[in-house]
Design goal:
The complex is a heteropentamer of chains A (about 300), B (about 230), C (about 375), D (about 260) and E (about 325). With about 230 residues, chain B is α/β, with parallel strands linked by helices. Chain B contains nine helices and ten strands. In chain B, strand 4 and strand 5 form a beta hairpin. Chain B is globular. Classes of the chains: A mainly alpha (about 300), B alpha/beta (about 230), C alpha/beta (about 375), D alpha/beta (about 260), E mainly alpha (about 325). Chains A and E meet through helix 4, helix 9 and helix 11 of A and helix 1, helix 6, helix 11 and helix 13 of E. Bound molecules: adenosine-5'-triphosphate (ATP) (2 copies) and magnesium ion (2 copies). Chain D: Pfam families: ABC_tran (PF00005), BCA_ABC_TP_C (PF12399).
């Protein structure tokens, strides 16, 4: 058997694939963060909580209305997205134009409240949620046993990431959004309804988090704390990728997922901090991040 | 000639501070009118109030017969008013071409992109650079070009020559003349008196948030004394 | 007679944080049930239960404990989820010469290096979990082990103690991997566990980490391929949160199961009426601790700490939780532990019917010999 | 504008204090500055003019090391500063102003100047002394404010000054460092006529004892003030010489001044 | 520098040095009297906790309020110092004052390392980098042997301060803590209103301009960062002695969030604001513990309300009132 650093090649391939799956979540979440930051100049600390809300909506939809996974995959992001819209309308818009730190602090409070509320009503040990029957079981890839559901996660996240990237970078809508970030009044003077745009953007970013949440529900325990564990890592991903760069967020998400996966094989003790270490190095060598735009 | 823009008794405030005190102004279709005045008399404020950026305003603004006071900010452009701000407002996250294409087209007699690039060859050359990586003068051109594409009927231009090389100032003068031939109405704010006198049909002189005098270009020589006094030119 | 006209017990635990399901508000209910069962009065003075949420912060906990002792005439504090809190409050109680009975924390230090003459450890500890899952499971044929260990002291000590029992029962440990706290994705580790070929995969972690690992083990078909999953610290509440579909086949050790016999069922049902859920070993442990404390006060005829402690050390425990229990000189309460297996969904006949009892580990075997505990109260 | 000021400082010792050789700056594929050689002399005013986007500000950024040149070398008083960080360059005596006014808005006018004075007077690191330690700087600061006519505004917040006054303040702050070489980016832009006169005279005055390199579009001032003019176009030097020579150059007229008299 | 944001300078603005007015002195005297008399009315250990957190918040505020840098990793210094001190006193048998010194030095060193990376960026990037680095430190503490994992370092002896004062007596402990607190506060006040502090302010106002005046901005920021870290460490070290333990909660990122809340609530960029803020947060945490209402929800709501309607914080709002301005309690710029 071919060995690489003392690890059989097939095992290595397996771990790479697993890293990619992990990266799918990072990519989806950092994409949403990057969009919200890019357009609203708000670091959405509540992103993790909204991811959790996505997973919980799937669970609640199932328990109270009987709507299963596929329905939830569409409905949960919409519902959570609408909540995002409401939050933006009522609160966030009062913070535009202020120091972005206030946005960070507000969403931090929001995250605490959301998580606290769910912990209060649903306890901390979480709720069960099963993968859809169509994706149950797994496939033997030769080098590893691959649960079908995980394959689907990779595919779904790729589709959504690329679609979102296209929407923002390649359409007129995206140009409005980017311009509005810099000078919303002027874009309005040009005849674009910016407040509505911003609202929708936040809704979209939040919906992406919720989508990731639904994807995660069958893999991870649906628990009020699921978001706060992952959000700090995703922050690091975004810093490494370069804030505000959509492509950067996506690519870095996958890359760091893989890096983390490999660390789990070679030096598992360090897998929790490997992303932070990478971040430190990137900051030393390229302060703007891998994909950041800075002279 | 019909009055395209008709302003009566306009008052405007920045928070507590009252800046425009009953301003009256009438601009006819196809005219180029220049507002003159010292620093801080409220020229920029006048333009910002017309577009609706400043919402705390009282009085009357009619554009093409319609009352503009109740129009939301993002609808102003659709009525046919285009604005080029003093600070130019080029977007750094958009490249030159994207900046140019940004404002939605609101009228039918907008210029085509080809025409624009012919008028401003610099922009064509730098079309893929980020907007704010242009020099000051290039940015000014881009800001004007951007509005020309949308086909508005009236252009509000705030100090388009500030910080520009003489040769560019001259070019912008030519552009304004061409726009006039195309039937565009222009309301221009200028400190550069020499430039203004070349392009304008008529002048308003502002002081303390009011129009203090109004005269056509022909009367300019007779007025030089007052202008000297008020503007220090 | 009681010193101040009443006997007051404080339940100090996590009610809103990560361990809220462990005990939480429901434990307060359990304590109140004990008071009712005792008759509401002791030595003719009323019994009062108060409670507080320490938010898993030792400084808040120690602050509250001091205030309870100094200004609120609290005579004993119980439950004390999470070891940092338990150790801190035990130190305060020792200083103030007051009784604390821990049911919510796992560390053996409470009855070891940091033991207190007035401190008691009631429900379980890492040693007992290791004996139960490590020792008893080997006897059932699970003789080769692979550990998935949380990368901090708690994980290490669980792994170490468990492997000792595995080895002393002639089993072997074929490998282990350490994962950071709060890891969400366990697939890499599970693949390693899978390829190790061990019969038992031991999860030396807790809470959400264990839950995620179990859920993903099901996804990777670990149990289908003949391996057995053993959670070293896991309770009924978490099995409930995970659902039988994901948890089936899991082996674990608890000090209590509501469906053990009639007595426990009666207790369980009463508890469920009040809280909406069945009790785990922490709830039942807190019930038992309160009850035993009251009995001790009764017997001592006073709520004086020294006297009550002495009775607590000497008097056997006999209630639904601590049947035939005894208390060691280091404050450790010895009671039976149960090796349990989570049922398949189709085997479960009624709500909360989650476990099969694989083995009962007698109290004297389940806990560390006080002489070896390192507690300097043991001569 | 052909008049030559009689007041022009006589360059007693026209030695080169700042010199750049073959400097170049590429942004992505685009080179904003190419092959620029510059010699700035002590006790002279050197103008850098050119159409918008010619690269004047970029040259300033390169000389002061706010940008790192892609190629070329820069010498400050014989010392190679091509790789030196910007704050160090400033400490070596090369100080700049900015095209858009750069003051500390929420400090008083006096404090703005005092901040600049702190470093040369070794009062920058003391975290254990009270601010009143800085009062020793007041005399010099007031002197500088007097020089630019800001005495009346001494205690106002810089943010409350009008644009023109801010630029004046910026110049006072720059002078506080007593730089050997002074780089001014459009120092007169946005100023009213009175300020223009004051500041132009000030520049003339300070240039007697140091080198000044300035970017300016106001050609009458350039004609009046500058000993030497370099015309930049598309990142390259188009013409050099004194104002009369340069302004007669037909290429300069086409590229910059236009056909009419400015 | 694309992330330079113009609004930061106007919304996070600090008070300039103001000549000491009569009213100010009166307030100080009252505060001091209160500190001296307080343990006879309020629970001393609670007071000590309060003082530790107040010092922590004030130290944090040096960075946020006077340098414009939001650190989301200050728990590292607070909790880190607590561990160092606890270890030094318990395992090495050092005296309390030396233990505190070890804690402070350790925190300063951590500050130097974290600052070295973080000051390369500004604004929210800075916040996120500090957050990530402090998370690394959390994992370090979790896994390192000397911290005893989730048990924490327990039963730390208080010992005798300078070999004389028996800290096991709660009153002498209290007055020691008070003295350290007042000393720390004075240090902060002096630091902020010093020539060095002046440069910090100018950097916050206009960084490129400060560079062009020859200031190596990075060094000043780093200096402020280390100072703030060291004082946060002082607070943590004292807390370890007060409670006689050091645990993971103090290095967790939630603690960093809490100190931000304290500062925000009290008033960013005011000297006394963080003291009020921490009193409220600590008091609330204690109070809610026994009410059965979930603490996180309340904390979250307080956060949101503060940001939305109460950005200046308690002291900031008081300073802005006419009366305060008239008495000369407030500064010139916040009106
Ligand atoms: N955002 C603002 N808030 C408060 N006051 C303002 C604001 N903008 C302008 N002003 C004040 O309003 C008055 C008019 O300003 P305006 O910008 O209209 O002057 P202007 O005539 O355009 O001057 P300039 O020639 O300098 O551009 C000035 O006194 C100015 O100080
Ligand atoms: N950071 C940058 N990245 C890319 N291009 C840049 C950058 N800075 C400047 N440029 C480009 O370099 C050219 C020169 O710019 P510069 O600002 O030096 O012009 P300038 O001569 O100062 O013009 P002005 O008189 O209008 O201020 C311009 O075309 C500009 O677009
Ligand atoms: Mg203006
Ligand atoms: Mg320039």
């Amino acid at each position: 058997m071919t060995m690489i650093f003392g690890i059989p090649l097939p095992a290595l391939l397996g771990q790479l694939l697993i890293g990619l799956i992990n990266g799918s979540f990072y990519a989806l979440l950092s994409l949403g963060l990057a969009i919200i930051f890019g357009m609203l100049r708000i670091i959405n600390f509540a992103h993790g909580a909204q991811y959790m809300l996505g997973a919980f909506s799937a669970y609640l939809l199932l328990t109270f209305t009987g709507i299963g996974y596929w329905g939830a995959l569409i409905l949960a992001p919409i519902l959570v997205g609408i909540l995002g819209v409401v939050i933006e309308r009522l609160f966030l818009r009062r913070l535009y134009g202020l120091d972005p730190l206030y946005g960070l602090l507000f969403t931090f409070g929001l995250a605490l409240t959301l998580e606290g509320t769910f912990r209060y009503f649903y306890g901390s040990s979480g709720q069960p949620y099963a993968a859809p029957a169509a994706l149950a079981g797994g496939t033997n890839l030769g080098f590893m046993f691959m649960p079908n559901y995980r394959g689907w996660v990779v595919v779904a996240s790729l589709i959504v990431c690329i679609g979102t990237w296209f929407l923002i970078e390649k359409t007129k809508l995206g140009a409005y959004l980017r311009a509005a970030t810099e000078n919303a009044t002027l874009v309005q003077v040009f005849g674009v309804n910016v407040p509505v745009l911003l609202t929708l953007t936040y809704g979209l970013g939040v919906a992406l988090a919720a989508f990731a949440g639904v994807l995660a529900a069958p893999v991870y325990q649906v628990s009020p704390l699921m978001g706060s564990n992952i959000i700090i890592i995703v922050f690091a991903v975004v810093v490494v990728g370069g804030m505000g760069s959509i492509m950067g967020a996506i690519v870095t998400g996958y890359l760091l997922g893989i890096a983390e996966g490999l660390t789990k094989v070679f030096y598992p003790e360090a897998s929790s901090i490997v992303i932070f270490v990478i971040m430190a190095f990137v900051l030393l060598l390229r302060p703007a991040g891998l994909f950041g735009r800075e002279a | 000639m019909a009055a395209l823009l008709d302003i009566k008794g306009l008052n405007a405030w920045y928070g507590e501070s009252h800046v425009l005190h009953g301003l009256d102004m009438t601009i006819h279709d196809g005219e180029t009118v220049t507002i003159l005045g010292r620093n801080g008399v409220g020229k920029t404020t006048t333009l910002r109030t017309i577009t609706g950026i400043i919402r705390s305003r009282k009085g009357q603004i009619r554009f093409d017969g319609k009352d503009m006071l109740s129009v939301p900010l993002h609808r102003t452009a659709h009525h046919g008013i285009g604005y080029v701000p003093e600070e130019r407002g080029i977007f750094s996250s958009l490249n030159v071409l994207e900046n140019l294409m940004l404002p939605p087209v609101v009228g039918k007699n907008g210029m085509s992109v080809e025409d624009i690039f012919e008028l401003f060859p610099n922009l064509h050359e730098r079309r893929h650079s980020p907007g704010t990586r242009l020099s000051g003068g290039e940015q000014q051109m881009l800001a004007i070009a951007r509005i020309l594409r949308t086909g508005v009927r009236m252009l509000l231009l705030d100090e388009p020559t500030e910080g520009l090389a003489p040769v560019i100032v001259q070019r912008i003068g030519e552009v304004l003349k061409k726009l006039k031939e195309r039937g565009l109405t222009v309301l221009l704010v200028e400190q550069n008196f020499r430039f203004a006198s070349r392009v304008a049909d008529r002048f308003y002189l502002m002081d303390h948030g009011q129009v203090v005098s109004e005269f056509p270009v022909g009367e300019l020589p007779d007025r030089m004394d007052t202008l000297h006094h008020v503007l220090g030119v | 007679a009681a010193s101040d006209g009443k006997v007051k017990i404080g339940i100090l635990n996590d009610q809103s944080g990560v361990y809220a399901d462990f005990g939480g508000k429901s434990s307060v209910e359990a304590a109140k049930m004990a008071v009712e069962d005792f008759g509401g009065k002791v030595l003719d003075v009323p019994i009062e239960i108060i409670d507080a949420d320490h938010q898993n912060k030792p400084d808040i906990a120690s602050n509250i404990a001091r205030q309870w002792f100094d200004t609120q005439q609290v005579d004993a504090i119980m439950e004390l989820t999470t070891s940092s809190v338990a150790l801190a409050v035990q130190a305060v109680a020792k200083e103030k010469k007051k009784i604390d009975i821990v049911t919510g924390a796992a560390t053996t230090d409470l009855t070891g290096k940091q033991c207190s003459p007035y401190g008691f450890h009631w429900a379980y500890d890492t040693y007992a979990l290791a004996v139960g899952t490590g020792g008893a499971l080997v006897k059932q044929g699970g003789d080769s082990w692979f550990f998935l260990t949380a990368d901090y002291a708690f994980g290490y000590s669980l792994e170490e103690q468990t492997s000792n029992f595995v080895k002393s029962n002639n089993g072997k440990v074929v490998g282990s991997v350490r994962h950071p706290l709060s890891t969400t994705d366990y697939s890499s580790f599970l693949l390693q566990a899978q390829s190790s070929g061990a019969k038992v995969v031991g999860l030396a972690n807790a809470g959400a980490d264990t839950q995620n690992a179990i859920k993903q083990a099901a996804e990777f078909g670990l149990t289908q391929s003949g391996q057995r999953l053993a959670a070293l610290l896991f309770t009924l509440a978490e099995v409930h949160g995970l659902g039988l579909k994901a948890a089936q086949g899991l082996t674990l050790t608890e000090g209590f199961y509501w469906d053990r016999d009639d007595e426990s069922r009666k207790f369980g049902e009463r508890f469920q009426k009040r809280t909406g859920k069945m009790p785990n070993m922490i709830h039942a442990g807190t019930y038992s601790a309160v009850l035993q404390y009251l009995k001790a006060v009764q017997k001592a005829g006073t709520d004086d700490t020294e006297a009550v402690s002495k009775v607590l050390h000497d008097m056997p425990v006999d209630d639904v939780f601590g049947r035939g229990g005894t208390v060691g000189a280091n404050g450790r309460m010895f009671h039976d532990m149960y090796l349990l297996e989570v049922k398949k969904p189709e085997e479960s006949k009624k709500p909360w019917d989650y476990y099969k009892v694989l083995a009962t580990i007698p109290g004297k075997d389940a806990y560390m010999d006080p002489k070896k505990s390192g507690c300097d109260l043991v001569k | 504008m052909t008049q030559v000021s009689v007041e022009r400082a006589v360059s007693s010792e026209p030695r080169v204090v700042l010199s750049a050789r073959g400097i170049r700056k590429d942004f992505g594929g685009f080179s904003a500055v190419r092959n620029v050689d510059l010699d700035v002399h002590h006790a002279r005013v050197h103008a850098l003019i050119g159409p918008n986007g010619a690269g004047k500000t970029t040259v300033f950024n390169l000389l002061t090391k706010f940008l790192q040149p892609t190629a070329g070398t820069i010498l400050l008083m014989g010392q190679d500063i091509t790789r030196t960080p910007p704050d160090k360059v400033a400490r070596l005596g090369l100080v700049r102003s900015f095209q858009i006014s750069a003051v500390f808005p929420h400090l008083s006018v006096l404090d703005n100047v005092r901040v600049a004075l702190q470093r040369p007077n070794n009062l920058a690191h003391q975290f254990w002394r009270p601010v009143s330690a800085l009062d020793t700087l007041n005399r010099r600061a007031d002197e500088l404010l007097g020089l630019v006519g800001l005495t009346k505004e001494r205690d106002r917040l810089a943010a409350d000054l009008s644009y023109g006054r801010k630029r004046v303040l910026e110049i006072a702050t720059t002078l506080a460092l007593d730089p050997k070489v002074l780089l001014l980016d459009e120092p007169l832009a946005g100023m009213g006529q009175e300020d223009i006169t004051v500041v132009a005279n000030l520049i003339r005055e300070v240039a007697k004892t140091r080198a000044v390199l300035m970017v300016e579009h106001n050609l009458s001032v350039v004609a009046d003030l500058c000993h030497f003019v370099t015309v930049l176009q598309r990142g390259e030097i188009l013409a050099e010489g004194d104002y009369e020579t340069v302004s007669r150059d037909p290429r300069v007229r086409i590229a910059y001044m236009g056909t009419e008299e400015a | 520098m694309t992330d330079a944001n113009p609004t930061i300078r106007t919304t996070l603005r600090a008070e300039p040095a103001v000549p000491v007015s009569g009213a100010r002195i009166a307030v100080l005297v009252i505060a001091l009297a209160f500190l001296i008399g307080a343990p006879f009315f309020v629970y001393p250990i609670f007071l000590m906790k309060l003082l530790c957190f107040a010092l922590f918040a004030c130290a944090f505020n040096v960075l946020l309020g006077y340098t414009g840098l939001l650190s989301f990793g200050h728990a590292t210094f607070f909790g880190g110092a607590a561990y160092f001190t606890a270890h030094a006193v318990k395992e090495w048998g050092l005296s309390p004052e030396l233990g505190i010194l070890v804690g402070v030095a350790g925190a300063a060193l951590l500050g130097l390392i974290m600052g070295y990376f973080a000051i390369r960026r500004q604004g929210i990037y800075f916040a996120m980098i500090t957050l990530a680095l402090s998370q690394m430190f959390f994992f370090f503490c979790l896994q390192a042997k000397f911290t005893h994992g989730e048990d924490g370092i327990q039963s730390v002896p208080r010992g005798h301060f300078f070999g004389l004062l028996d800290l096991n007596d709660s009153l002498s402990m209290y007055y020691t803590v008070t003295a350290i607190f007042v000393g720390g506060l004075f240090l902060i006040w002096r630091f902020v209103h010093s020539p060095f502090g002046m440069i910090l302010r100018s950097i916050r106002e206009n960084e490129p301009r400060a560079i062009s005046l020859g200031y190596s901005v990075a060094r000043y920021k780093l200096g402020a960062f280390v100072f703030s870290a060291a004082l946060a460490g002082l607070a943590g070290a004292v807390k370890a002695l007060v409670f006689q333990f050091a645990t993971l909660t103090d290095v967790a990122w939630q603690m960093s969030g809490e100190v931000i809340l304290m500062t925000l609530l009290g008033g960013i960029g005011t000297i006394f604001g963080p003291i009020f803020g921490s009193a409220l947060v600590v008091g609330l945490g204690n109070y809610l513990a026994t009410t059965g209402f979930p603490v996180t929800i309340i904390t979250g709501i307080v956060f949101m309300v503060c940001v939305l309607v109460f950005r200046r914080g308690i002291v900031g709002e008081i300073n802005a009132t006419r009366l305060a301005q008239k008495l000369g309690l407030a500064d010139r710029s916040s009106g």
